[in-house]
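Thread amino acids onto this structure.
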């Protein structure tokens, strides 16, 4: 694009010169791997008629989200001219100012409004699904049906209160806790998927290899991070992370491999027509 240059991508631009490992894989989640997205999978699966649709729905959504992330990453590196200018824009108005300036500066009023609405809708829908899934989890835990408005409000109002309180906490602190919790949830889901594939004698490495990597990431992060975790040296934290993840892999494989049988008739049954209790 004429007039724009992307900053050097091979330089660590963090002003505090913090290490990319493992924080990079905690910070970047959407479009790559995210535990929050995994919690929404059952809601999407109920809308599919057949398991084979999962590749298009889930993989397609991941690719689409990754493209959006790369677009905004390229804008952040090029539109403001330098990292200092980008930091100044964030300081003056937060991420919203970055989105506003880039959208209206490149697309004009009409395009800027559309782009800005798209950015606003994404967190709104994320918040909606987060509160909804939390409400359903609590309702299941307390064995409270959710058909009546009264019962829904009994579950939802306390969650709204907690959400309101969290808005008063520094976003940087919340984001660090969310990043760790999010990727830890992703690790749990990956190991669950690996156990399922192992029990049914399917190719499990597609989830086991990412599970090993992400387990190393989250363990290394919590051991090394002085604010959230234990503040151990990076080298020791990484070694402990690798050893722990490989140990978990060995345990899961040993306990799960060949322990289940698959009913081919059930395997081909459309999801939407599966009998439920």
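Threaded sequence (277 positions):
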């Amino acid at each position: 694009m004429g007039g724009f240059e992307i900053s050097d991508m091979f330089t660590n631009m963090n002003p505090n010169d913090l290490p990319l490992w493992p924080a990079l894989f905690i910070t970047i989640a959407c479009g790559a791997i995210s535990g929050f997205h995994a919690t929404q999978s059952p809601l999407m699966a109920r809308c599919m008629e057949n398991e084979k649709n999962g590749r298009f729905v889930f993989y397609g959504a991941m690719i689409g989200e990754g493209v959006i992330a790369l677009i905004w990453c390229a804008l952040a590196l090029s539109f403001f001219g330098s990292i200092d200018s980008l930091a100044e824009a964030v300081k003056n108005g937060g991420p919203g100012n970055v989105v506003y300036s880039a959208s209206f500066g490149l697309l004009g009023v009409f395009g800027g409004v559309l782009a800005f609405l798209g950015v606003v809708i994404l967190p709104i829908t994320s918040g909606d699904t987060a509160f909804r899934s939390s409400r359903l989890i609590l309702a299941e835990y307390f064995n409270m049906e959710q058909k009546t408005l009264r019962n829904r409000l009994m579950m939802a109002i306390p969650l709204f209160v907690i959400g309101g309180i969290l808005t008063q906490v520094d976003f940087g602190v919340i984001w660090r806790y969310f990043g760790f919790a999010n990727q830890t949830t992703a690790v749990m889901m990956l190991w669950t998927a690996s156990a399922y594939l192992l029990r049914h004698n399917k190719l499990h490495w597609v989830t086991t290899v990412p599970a090993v990597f992400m387990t190393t990431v989250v363990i290394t992060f919590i051991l090394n991070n002085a604010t959230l975790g234990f503040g151990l040296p990076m080298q020791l934290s990484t070694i402990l992370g690798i050893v722990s993840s490989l140990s978990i892999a060995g345990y899961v494989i040993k306990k799960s491999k060949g322990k289940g049988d698959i009913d081919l008739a059930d395997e081909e049954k459309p999801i939407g027509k599966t009998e439920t209790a």
